[in-house]
Amino acid sequence: MLCPFCGHDDTQVKDSRPTDDGAAIRRRRFCTACTQRFTTIERVQLRDLIVIKSDGRRVPFDRDKLARSVRIALRKRPVAEERIERIVNGIVRQLEASGEGEIASQQIGELVMETLKEVDAVAYVRFASVYRNFREAKDFEAFLGQLGDPT
């Protein structure tokens, strides 16, 4: 592993621990050249996923982009960082377990919305407002009307 500080290719693992949910391993490393310390996280990746965007483009799935979107929706909400990681890990596992190598971006968005609906209603509405491209207050009103409707 290359050192992020000096680029040297000889780093050593000093400590390895599983994350709280057991879905990854956190490794503390240090560089033998510059002696700086840093952390890496190792996760299982079942397959390389390709996302089919609404305009037809195909791009590699980006876990960090998914995590950023979920964090933005949950910003200033009473949800712990560990829970956010479990949410993201769960969504990624569902996508990988689907058996599909290519997944429509709409499918990912719907999966995130379903998950956020169970976790936090405010985050659910925030994500929906961006995902569904709300432009006016009436868009929110219509969406919130559906949210209150049990059918």
- Beta-strand proportion: 15-25%
* End-to-end CA span: 53 Å
- Poorly predicted runs of 5 or more residues: none
Mean pLDDT: 87
| Largest sheet, spatial ordering of strands | 1-2-3
Shape, per Cα inertia axes: elongated
Total strands: the figure is: 6
Provide the domain count.
2
User: Helical element count?
Assistant: 5
Structural class: alpha+beta
Percent helix range: 40-55%
Oligomer: single chain
Largest sheet: 3 strands, antiparallel
Describe what this molecule looks like in 3D.
The chain is of the alpha+beta class and 151 residues long. The protein has 2 domains: 11-43; 50-148. Helices cover 44% and strands 21% of the residues. It has helices at residues 63-73, 81-97, 105-119, 121-131, 137-148, and strands at residues 11-18, 24-31, 37-43, 50-52, 58-60, 102-104. The strands form 2 sheets. The protein has a 3-stranded antiparallel β-sheet with strand order 1-2-3, with no helix packed on it. Helix 1 packs across helix 4 and helix 3 (105-119) packs antiparallel against helix 4. It starts with 10 loop residues before the first strand and ends with a helix.
